[in-house]
Predict the 3D structure of the following.
Amino acid sequence: MSIHKQVKIVTTHQLKEMKANGEKIAMLTAYDYSMAKIIDQAGIDIILVGDSASNVMAGNKTTLPITLDHMIWHATSVVKAVKRAFVVVDVPFGSYQGNSSEALRSCIRIMKESGGHAVKMEGGIEIKESVQRVLSAGIPVMGHLGLTPQSIYKFGTYSVRAKEEEEARKLPEDARLLEQLGCFGIVLEKIPADLAKRVAESVEIPIIGIGAGPDVDGQVLVLHDMLGITQDFKPRFLRQYADLNKIMTEAFKNYVSDIKLKSFPNERESY
Ligand code: KIV
């Protein structure tokens, strides 16, 4: 196989070039093989194996319960499907904060066992040592600032972050720090659009927004939310691209009804 066939088409270098050229970056979450295959074939640049799997796949209220083993399982399924996209894997709560050796161990497991291309960690200066240590092992790291769901019990709510002066001052500092450390990109979640714009303009690495307005370098949404599978989560920033809940419910009802009415399977569907 030629070297070109072995190399993934999307790389951290290309993502940075896309920002420099003003080309917006498209990112979506995925947690399983079948969905990841469709998303990859649709031309997405980055697939995030998000710890939102805790919510949309496992039905938890927060992202806190998901474990490293769960994340590796999801990531392994996604990686098998992907031919073009850059695959980023969330490092779950409790496997990197406050202990850089553990952070390195967790990220090495993710990279070795799942075949993912990079990891994402939530936080700024608080996780500086973990980020440094993981980067020093040659693992690409994406930051995540603003609303960081792993700290939900510290915030107390999922409302817009960095509206207060102190947080609005710290966030750009954290973004610059993550860039200096060597992160290849940062997710900014649910912050005022003008602050996100300022952050995107102040760094050379791509800033990917979710609820951070249009003036960043790319956008990310949670798959189940944008497909309209999730029913009870409709924040202002969410654009729903399909109503799969309705389509699927109809399909399931028709299936049940066909069985009850003995119309499935018919002769052509039998051997
Ligand atoms: O876990 C996730 O899906 C995320 C996105 C909200 C960016 O981190």
